[in-house]
Amino acid sequence: MSDYVELNRANWDSRVSHHVQGYGLDAFADPSHLSDVVRFDLELLGDVTGLDVVHLQCHIGTDTVSLARRGPRRVVGVDFSALAASAARELSAAAATPVDFVECELYDTLGVLEPASFDLVYTGIGALCWIPDIRGWAEVVSGLLRPGGRLFLREGHPVLWALDDPRPDGLLALRYPYFESAGVHFVEEHSYVEHDEPLAAPESVSFNHGLGEIITALMDAGLHLSGLVEHRSVPWNPLGDAMVEVGAGEWALKEGPERLPLTYTLQAVKGD
Q: Which domains, ranges and CATH numbers included, belong to the chain?
C-alpha cells in the first residue's frame, strides 16, 4: 500500500475524536436536521427519493446521514478510516437513520461494492485533495454507477487549494500546484474544528487536480458533464482574517469576493 495512504489514514484517524466533539452531532437527534453542506447542496442536488446512493470519502457520516434523510432507497458511505466508519455507524444509530458504512480505500471500492449498482455517487467537500490519481477516481465513479446514473460533486476549487497563506497586503498568491502532481507534504498540529490537544498524527500529503483534468477524466471514463457551477463561498474558513462568515456555515472573501472561486459543484451522467 502506498505510503501516502498510511500517512493520511493516520492523520484522519487522529482527527476523528476531535470531529465527533466539534461537528455538533447532537443536532441529529432532530429527525429534520441536515448538515450545512447537504443543505447547501439541495438546490442543485434535487430529488433523490428512491435512489441507491453511495457517498465516497464520507468521514464520520454527517453528510451521509443527511442524504439518507432525503428519501433515497439505500445509502452507503465509504471511508478508508476504520475509526471514522465506526463513528459514522454510531451517528447513524443515534440519529435513527439507517446507512451502511464500509471501510475501504477509495481505489479498492469496486472490489468491495457491487459495480453498476448505484444511481448517484456523491462526493463532498475536501475529498479529492486526498487522492493522487484523478483518472483512477473517475474509473471508480463510473464503475459504481448504473447507465444513466449521476455523479454529484461539490469540492474545494483547485485555485483555492493552490493559494498561499494570507498575506499582510491582502493580495492572493498562488504557491502550491494547480495541476495534478506528486503531492505536497504538510504538518498541521490542529484540524479545522477547534480543539486543545494537537493531532496525534499531524502529517499528511495532499494532491490538487485542475478542473480540466477532472472533467477530462470523467469524460474518458464514460460520463458526460451535465452541470458546473463555481461558488464564492466555502464551508470553512481557509484564509483567516481575509474571510467573513456569510451564513449557513459558509465563508467568503471579506474584500472582493468576486476575485476567487472557492468551491464548485460538478455533475456528470454515465452514458448508456
A: 3-270 (3.40.50.150)
